Amino acid sequence: MAKKSVDEMSFLDHLEDLRWHLIRATLGIVIAATLAFLFKKFIFDVIIFGPTHMSFPTYKGLCKMSQLLGIEDTTFCADKFPFIIQNRTVAGQFSAHIWTSIYAGFIIAFPYVLYQLWSFISPGLKANERKSSRGFIIVASLLFFLGVLFGYYIITPLSINFLANYQISDQISNEFDISSVIAIVRSSSLASGFVFELPIIIYFLTKVGLVTPQFLRKYRKYALVIVLILSAIITPPDVASQVIVAIPILILYQASIYISALVVKNQKRKTKHV
What is this structure's pTM? Predict the structure, then answer.
């Protein structure tokens, strides 16, 4: 039986098509999560708990930078963090293993999830629209992974370093629960990954006419305030960390303006030729 064209498909046919794309995307995440589950030692000892050791590359780099600037009293050059990681519930470690594997599976399978999403959307696009969006999966995946790496190597260590050394009394010792440490690594990495998708989001919003470069330029100062608020949310409350996080987001916003302007320019050029 021949496959129906997009024009011939009913609403229920579209739902059925979407269901199979979601099933395949979920299956891809499950396979990647299973691989992550099997590599337990690497996922936890190297990745998750990597930023909890002073030998982590970010701390070494910040320590050298502090020394070059003549800053001697810095927590980046300490021998170890003043805390221990512990498990407080019976099923805590097993639960952490399962959920961490699922999140890792999503990150690993992200390009495949995008491919399934694109496979569902692309048949409804015109030939020229599909052609102009040909590199969508590659660019979107690259931006996502860059964001994840930024969150992992910049936001996570800055957050852990600040919170681990923050002290209200000498009588209190830090004994962090495993779920709390994992949450910092997970939220910082995933949040950054999605934030780095901003140029892609602006591209499609411009394509459908919801955003224009004039709009983005007009509200640039408001965007700056939002970026600073966002930086304050996902980083510890010190100015240096917020600035470090705000800079790449502002660069992404400026890049989004250029992308939006390019889309509008191409649309006007095509309109003239019609």
Answer: 0.85
